[in-house]
């Protein structure tokens, strides 16, 4: 094993009204849409994190996926300093932008405005877990496994990163959303990080 | 007073886009900031806007802000006194 081999240790997928943790359906709702699924997931996780309610749907998706992935994992202070976060989507913060724009005629909402940047989801996950590593957010027209693999690999090669939370989180509206979050490290596992593997997990 | 508190809770939820929260989920004495509802300084701006828009009350003294916006109880008391 060379020092640059990276492995996908955990995955969580969010689509079709379900959360799938490491290929196993973990939570689902009969009702269509992210809103009921998010409520059910927050209750299931027992996160007890009041700031969750303020988040916009995109940040809620990121929060919930990270709660599933990191649940049961105790990160040391050093690991928190060395956990990177790399994400991408196609929607940016489209849904929140629309909502903010609709209110501009009256008094623009500061509470909405803070969510009109997609990298805020990195901030929310970082604050929740005390993560202080490198981070980046990319906008791509569709899921791009190669981009994510290259960016993750570069972060590990050029910094002292030990862990990386990464993925694709897209939210257009309550019924048009999808998410994939992975936890990557040098700890050997049966899934090596590469484009083919990531595309298989995504599809 | 109870009616005002319930109305305030609903208005706070709407103003701050707390979509998954309902008035029954928190008490009127729950601190709105920090450990309670987890609101922050950005949300304080929203609550000041709410007081002005819905109750025609301007919170001009920033030192009073912490006291007035502590909880739904304190906000209701302030509204009734003004």
Describe, in plain words, how this protein is organized in 3D.
The complex is a heterodimer of chains A (203) and B (82). Chain A contains eight helices and seven strands; from the N terminus they run βββαααβαααβαββα. Helices cover 37% and strands 25% of the residues of chain A. In chain A, helix 1 (34-45) runs parallel beside helix 2 (57-70), helix 2 runs parallel beside helix 6 and helix 7 (145-158) packs across helix 8 (195-202). Chain A is globular. Chain A has a seven-stranded mixed beta sheet, sandwiched between helices. Chain A has helices at residues 34-45, 57-70, 77-81, 94-102, 110-113, 120-129, 145-158, 195-202; strands spanning 7-15, 18-21, 24-28, 83-89, 135-139, 163-173, 176-185. The longest helix of chain A has 14 residues, at 57-70. The model of chain A has no long low-confidence stretch (mean pLDDT 94). Chain A is an alpha/beta fold and 203 residues long. With 82 residues, chain B is mainly alpha-helical. In chain B, helix 1 (2-15) crosses helix 4 (72-81). Chain B is globular. The two termini of chain B are 14 Å apart. The chains are: A alpha/beta (203), B mainly alpha (82).
Write a compact overview of the structure shown:
The complex is a heterodimer of chains A (203) and B (82). By secondary structure, chain A is of the alpha/beta class. Chain A has 8 helices and 7 strands, in the order βββαααβαααβαββα.
Q: Unreliable runs of chain A, pLDDT <50, ≥5 residues?
A: none
Largest sheet of chain A: 7 strands, mixed
**Count of discrete alpha- or pi-helical segments spanning 4 or more residues of chain A:** 8
Q: Sketch the major β-sheet of chain B.
A: none
Residue windows where pLDDT falls under 50 for at least 5 positions of chain B: none
């Amino acid at each position: 094993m060379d020092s640059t081999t990276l492995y996908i240790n955990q995955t969580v997928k969010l689509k079709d009204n379900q959360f799938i943790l490491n290929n196993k359906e973990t939570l689902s709702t009969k009702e269509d849409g992210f809103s009921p699924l998010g409520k059910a997931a927050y209750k299931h996780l027992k996160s007890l994190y009041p700031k969750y309610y303020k988040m916009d749907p995109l940040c809620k998706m990121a929060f919930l996926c990270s709660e599933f992935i990191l649940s049961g994992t105790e990160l040391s202070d050093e690991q928190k300093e060395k956990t990177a976060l790399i994400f991408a989507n196609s929607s940016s913060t489209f849904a929140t932008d629309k909502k903010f724009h609709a209110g501009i005629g009256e008094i623009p909402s500061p509470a909405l405005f803070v969510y009109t940047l997609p990298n805020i989801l990195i901030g929310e996950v970082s604050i929740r877990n005390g993560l202080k590593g490198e981070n980046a957010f990319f906008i791509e027209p569709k899921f791009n496994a190669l981009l994510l693999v290259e960016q993750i690999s570069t972060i590990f090669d050029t910094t002292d990163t030990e862990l990386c939370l990464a993925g694709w989180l897209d939210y257009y509206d309550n019924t048009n959303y999808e998410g994939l979050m992975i936890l990557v490290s040098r700890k050997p596992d049966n899934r090596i990080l590469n484009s083919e593997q990531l595309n298989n997990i995504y599809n | 007073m109870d009616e005002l508190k319930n109305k305030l809770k609903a208005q706070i939820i709407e103003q701050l886009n707390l979509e998954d929260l309902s008035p029954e989920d928190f008490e009127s004495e729950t601190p709105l900031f920090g450990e309670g509802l987890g609101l922050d300084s950005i949300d304080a701006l929203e609550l000041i806007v709410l007081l002005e828009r819905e109750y025609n009350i301007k919170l001009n003294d920033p030192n009073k802000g912490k006291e007035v916006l502590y909880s739904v109880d304190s906000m209701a008391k302030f509204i009734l006194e003004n």
